[in-house]
Structures are given as structure tokens and as C-alpha cells.
Amino acid sequence: MTGAPATDAEVHLEGLGFGRGAHLLVQRALAALPPGGRLAVSGRDPTLPVHLPAWCRSRGHRVEWPDPADRSELVAVVVRGTADDDRWFGAERAGPALPSALSRRPPPRWGLGARGALLEAGGPEARFDLDERDLVWADVAPKLYAQAAARQWDPETAVPWDDAFALPADVEAAVVQVMTYLVENEQAALVVPARFVGRIHPHFREVMQLLAVQMADEARHMEVFSRRALLRGAALGTSSAGGRQSLFTLVAESDFALASFLLSVLGEGSFVDLLSFLEQHAPDPVTRRVCWLAMQDERRHVVFGMAHLEHQASVDPLLRDRLRAAIHRRHDALVDTAGLNADVFDALVVLAAGGWHPDDVSAGFEQVQRLHHVMDQGRQRRLVRLGFRPDEAAALSALHTRNFM
Amino acid sequence: MPAPAVLMGAVAYDPKVVTIWEGFRAWLRGRGLDFDFVLYSHYERQVEDLVAGRIDAAWNSPLAWLRAERLAAASGGTVSALTMRDTDRDLTSVVVVRADSPLRQVEDLSGSLVGVGSVDSPQATLIPLGHLAAAGVEVDVRRFDVGVGLHGDHIGGERDAARALMAKEVDAACMIDANHLAFVQEGTLPPEGTRIVAQTARYDHCNMTVRDPASAGVRLFGTLLRGMSYADPEVRPLLDLEGLTAWEDGRTTGYDALARAVDASGFYAADGRVTAADYRP
Prior knowledge:
By secondary structure, chain A is mostly helical.
């Protein structure tokens, strides 16, 4: 090339070389030009005449050399190629950045791309089988996630572990038994969302985030309940075969809506009542506090489960048939099992009784009966909100597992 | 009528070669070319098989191109460069010294110890040593033979020479311009740790070598390769792996410096025989 070339833009790199990021300045200047646009690149770094053309070659840009007699600091003229534009040909936005107007069914090709990002065409087709908005989404999810994230508590500092208290041995044993039961229920409550979170299309990421925090909630619950169980002794209580069978039917449910229904709406809903009962009758400050903390979290889980299913019920008139069938199926699977661990039932009575006088025991027994009633009423209310007739809600609630969760 | 067919040879200098050509094979077959490839462990057998008619095309290094030309001529035939990558055009090699070296210009290299790549590397051995010889500069050479037979496709020899330079085991090192940049960016060479004391004239690198006259399959192969678009998401990852943004027409005007170096070093005879003394691919 001879003579001063006509150029469309220029960039002066001064002493900056490609070993320290000169490509950023060249790239920035080229981005403002159309393909074929000419950029005069000047600079003083002695490696520029070697590195600039090598870099341009790899990016599909052409280089024109200045007149050897040119004594300016012009290194070369870069003619912008098309590769940068070609790479983004056919690119698409992966839906909206904010969770408004979400896709009814996001395509597999959006996969792990951030929602709202500009996706280069090509790449893997990621198969997330829970990809229908109506099956997964609830408008309250982003808000619930924000609340959940804000209300995470530290098991080390949120519980008065060092408070002085001493319980009679049989009362301590009742606490340990109840804590043992809570740990295994929380374990199931962690496993159930864990089985779904990896199947949800990341387009519905707030639901993934919410379930992830829900799992973190359950992890903390497992920690504080087992820590309370071992606070004064070294052994946990008993775990009944029937209790574990009941939890197993929960974990085995592979349908997201049905699992959410059985776990959150029926199970955790009843659990909120149980934790409230325990907070009320806790014989020590540590038990009281851990039950209160877990209850706050479980309430949130119930809210999401309800919102998600209410939305789904509004668009799918057949959902209620499936929910009804799920309750019957689980009931049939558990009909020959013992249900609630008798040791747990007795421990609840002991805690509510608060003493060993026959009148105390009778009152405790009455309290536990009332707890059953409260749980039943709560389940019926939630079933009615999902569109079941009151009489049917009562019948279905009666079929719920005797293991509470 | 059977579909036009091409059997191409490629040298397996890296596992990605399988990914690249399996991907291209699917793309080419989808466009009416019955394409397949065979992999070679070095270029010499690939070139011999091309000239002997056992394969229809050879994805050749520049050195392999020169040998194909010579072997074909010796048997009364000719070969052509069907296509080449946009990144195969107008490369240069450089000779670099440490920044604190007293060597300032090419003449200063006389009598110094120069690290080069493999015995058969056009860009890190043959062309830069030819450049120094043409400038009348006699040097001692320390060779870093990695991947002999791969004609320098394996970057290891060049990198070892660069490391030897920084370890003060050699006074200067030879490498292709893009690798000098890559070595600086990856940290093998410190950003201001080297100085370029010589740069060769521009030369060309690989090409898709075919026998003349081109068959219908080979002609279609060239047309399809040139039609590959960087905007096509199916081939773009393969083009990225192969290091190009477009296939260009083949040209053979950029191999003179290498041909002179081959003759001067006696690497190949005029009839294409391998005559380099210590070359055992």
C-alpha cells in the first residue's frame, strides 16, 4: 500500500502492546465501524507490527501496511472483517431479563443461558423436562425468594444453646424423641425439592432459587433439631418403620405438582401446626427457639406450594383429579402401616402434659387430640382454596398420613 | 449415479482433529458429498498416499505441500492447492531475544545459540533459519524436537525454545508471530521480557492439496468448503477449533521462502525424497 490511506477511524495505542490488553482498544474502535470499515492503528510498542496482524488474522480482519517511508507512528490500517457480526447472526434473547412475560414453554436451546442474555446460535439442547410455565411458576416466587434469602438465620447465633436449664430425664427423653422424628422429616423435606430443582428449566430461575433456599432451610432444621437432641445426651430416639414408609412415599413421588402438593400443602402445612404446638409446650428455651425458627421457614414453603398449585389449578381443570388420586394412592400405600411412631405420639403427650399427675396426662392427651384437629382443619382450608368442595376436602384430609408429614 | 466422493487425509497432531473432521464430514455429507477422512500419524505417508492416488485430498502443512509438488512432478503429475484457511495467509516468524540481551539487530546474532522448534517445523525452524542464512548470519542451533513428523503443528517445540530463552539456555528463539503473542498472553514469555530482532517476510501456511485434474468430488469439496459460513452455528465451533473464520481459494505464491530453506538444508530432494539426515517421523 502506498500513500496515505483513507480511513474511517483511528486509535492510538501509545505504549500499550497486545501483551497488556491493546486488543481491547482495537476491538472497541472496530466495533464502531461497519464490515469493510478502515481503522488506522498507531502506537509505540515495538511488538505491535508483529502482534497486530497476528491478532487480526485470528479475528478475520485484514491488515494493510503503511508506506515504508511513513515516519509516523501508524502501525497498520485494519479493515474490519465480518466474523464478529457472523458470530451473532441468528442470536436471540433468552426471553425477558425480568420475570414478567415469561415464556410459556422456553426452548431447550436456551438451556443454561442466563434469562434475557443474547445467546449465540448453536450450543447444546439442554433437556430440562419441567419446562412448562404453568407447571412450575408462581408469580409470588421472586418475592418469596427475596424474603427467604433475607430471613436466613445462623444456627450458631440464632439459638440460645448456652442457656442454663435442666429437665427431668423423662421429659428430656420426650424432647429427644420428638427431635429425632423432626430430623428425619426434615431430611425428606430436603430430598423432595432436591429431586426437582435440577429438572426445572432455568428460565424459571426464581423457582430454582426458592427451592434452593428451601433446601438450605431444611439443612439448618436438620442441624438444629439434631443438635438439640444431643444437647444433654449422646443418643437419639427411635425411628419407626411406618414413619419411614410414609416419608418414602413422599420422596418417591416423581410428579412436581403432586410432590409439591403432598409435601408443602399437606405435609409442611401440618408441620407448621406441629411446630407451633411444640413451641407452645417446649420445656426449655432451646427447644422453643428451634421450633419457632423452623416454623417461620415452613410457613414460606407452604405459601409457595399453595401459590404454585393455585396458579396451576386455574389453568388446568384436571389438576384436582390428579391431586385427589395422589392422596388416595398414598393412603393406599400406607394403609397397612402404623403411621405415626407411637413413641412420638407419647412424647407429644408428655410435653403437653408438663407433669405426671393423671390430670396432667389427661390434659396433655387432650392437647394432642386438639393438635390433630387443628392440622385437619388447616388441610381442609387449603384444599378448599385449591377448589375442592368442603365435604370432599374433609374426606381427603382424613386420608392424609397419620405421620403428619 | 453415485454421489461425488472424496477421501481426505489429515494428520492427527491433536485429538481435536477427530472432532473437527467428524463435524465437517456430517456437514459435507448433508450437502451431497460422500466425504470421509483417514488420519495419519505424520505428513510424509499422507503425502505419499495422495500422490499414489490412495486418497483424494490431503490437509497439508506447507512442508507437505512442497513435498507433494515434488513427488507429483517426479511421477509426471501435478498437484494444486484447492483451498486454505484465511489464517494461512501472510504469516511471519520472528527471532526474539531477552529484553536485557546485548543483541540488538539481526547481524548481532552471528555466533549466538538460537533455539528453534522441531527439525520439520516450517515456522519455528526452516523458515527463520533460512532467513538468518540469507542475511549472512551464521548461528549455532539448538533444536527442540517435539512431535517430529507433524511439521511443527505441535506447538511444544516452539514453546520449549521460548522457555529455554527465558532460562538463558539459548541466546535467541524462533517462533511464528501468533505464538509470540500467545506465549506473552499465556505467560510463557513476560510481556516486556523479549525483544524481536528479526522478522521474516510474509509466507503462507497450510493448504488442501489435491491431484490434478480435480475430480467432480474434489471440485464439489472445494465449493462446499468455501461456502462454509462463520454465521452457520453448525460449523462455527468447528471453524473455531480449526482456527479460521473462512476458507479461501488456495494459492501457492507464499511458499518460496520455505522452498529455499528446504533446498538449502537438504530436507527434501528435488524429486521429493526425504533427505534430511536426522529426520525420522
